[in-house]
Amino acid sequence: MTTGHPRSHRRSRTRSLRLLLGVGVAGVLAAAAVFVVPQLLPPGPRPLFQMPVGCGETWQIGTYPGHGEYDVDFFPLDGDPWGQPVLASAAGTVTVSGINGSLGGRTPENPDGPRGRGGGYWVKIDHGGKWETQYLHLLEPPLVAEGQRVAQGEQIGRIGSTGNSGAPHLHYEQRQGWQKVQTWFDGQPSGITHDDAEYTLRLTSNNCPAG
User: Fold this and answer.
1) What is the CA radius of gyration of the chain?
2) Fewest CB atoms within 10 Å of the CB: 32, 90, 107, 119?
3) 172 with 132: CB under 8 angstroms?
4) Coil, helix or strand for 174?
5) CB atoms < 10 A from the CB of 104, how many?
6) 58-63 and 199-204 as β-strands: parallel, antiparallel, unpaired?
7) Is residue 121 within 8 Å of 162, Cβ to Cβ?
8) Which CDD domains match (predicted)?
């Protein structure tokens, strides 16, 4: 035996659906606010970024047409580039540690192997205040994991040629929010601001242990 009027059941189901829909929309809006609102806040002061390579080492940095404005490639002036340490430019939290695009097949044993796509093995570090750094074309899986806190100068990987890379090097970026900006090292701008010509600089790293 059925009790109650069919219309009352329909109204009850409608109210339940509206309640669930309202809860779902509120959840989506709350999640969006968590992501969007911090990006609307003004950036914090620029961290004292250091070069992502060893203390006292002089490296060639540069760019070329089509590379991307503000992007910097690092090449060592001494020693074999394969496997040289890549260091965190400043303290922060690892937000990405993995593969960007595809790896390809360029290795120390097969340096002319097939190129991959994108950045290959890479790391992204959040330094707070809407500042982050990115490190691409690493030789192998990064030495750090997502969510890990790293110190300035801590090794995060090794130089390789994974992804869309023609030779072993480190592709490096500094970002403020969603925008790439000119790289600064040890409180000074690097001078690489555009990619309408190929040019290089030589800089010495001050990414040294504290004290």
Assistant:
1) 24
2) 32
3) no
4) strand
5) 19
6) antiparallel
7) yes
8) M23_peptidase
Alpha helices in the chain (DSSP H): 6-40
Separation in Å, CA 195 to CA 62, 118, 184? 9, 18, 17
Query: What distance in Å separates the CA atoms of residue 75 and residue 77, rounded to the nearest whole number?
Result: 7
Nearest to 37 by CA among 29, 45, 27, 47: 29
- Distances from the Cα of 66 to the Cα of 9, 146, 196, angstroms: 64, 30, 7
For 184, the 3-state DSSP assignment is strand
CA distances from 48 to 88, 152, 185 (A): 12, 10, 7
Which residue has 């555009």 as its token pair?
194
C-alpha distances out from residue 80 to 28, 84, 146, Å: 50, 8, 29
For residues 120 and 59, is the Cβ–Cβ distance under 8 A?
Answer: no
57-205 carries CATH number 2.70.70.10: yes
| Chain-centroid distance, C-alpha 180 | 11
101 burial class (0-12, 13-18, 19+ CB within 10 angstroms)?
middle
